Write the structure tokens for this entry.
Amino acid sequence: IRKMELQDVPRISKMFLEQGWAPRDMVLENYVKEQNEGIRIGFVAEIENQIAGYVTLMILAKHGPFANIYPEVSDFNVFEKYQKLGIGNQLLDEVEKEAKAISEVITLGVGLHKGYGPAQRIYVKRGYIPDGTGVWYQNKNIDNNEPCFNDDDLALYLSKKLN
């Protein structure tokens, strides 16, 4: 596990393409830019010179109930062929260690569709708990019976004490 670097961008995008997803060059380049600005810290997991996954830590959450209060785990990915090897836990160990240096609490938002199932399970096993505000959609806390769509913008926010 090491800090994300600009030269990781094409390698990470290649991994997305290999599992049939769109590349994310612009997003990843922005992560490195934000890292240089002190807004975000990116971590990359490598196995035998292959990028197995990555995660970023926002120094302050941008959205949700923890916005501008606590650090937030953001964009956590372990590529499919490297899942179930403990890489996700290693990445989260590193990001939690970094967050503990600046806060007693770490937060995250997790999607609700089945594509987020592995992430949902790892977060619960690591002690993250829902914040109690219910479901958020497109960065807005939605009320009872308010319409939403089960896409990447539907999330539940969780937090964990780092003591």
Q: What stands out?
A: The beta strands are 2-3, 40-47, 50-58, 72-78, 105-111, 129-137, 140-141, 154-161. The helical segments are 8-18, 25-36, 87-100, 117-125.
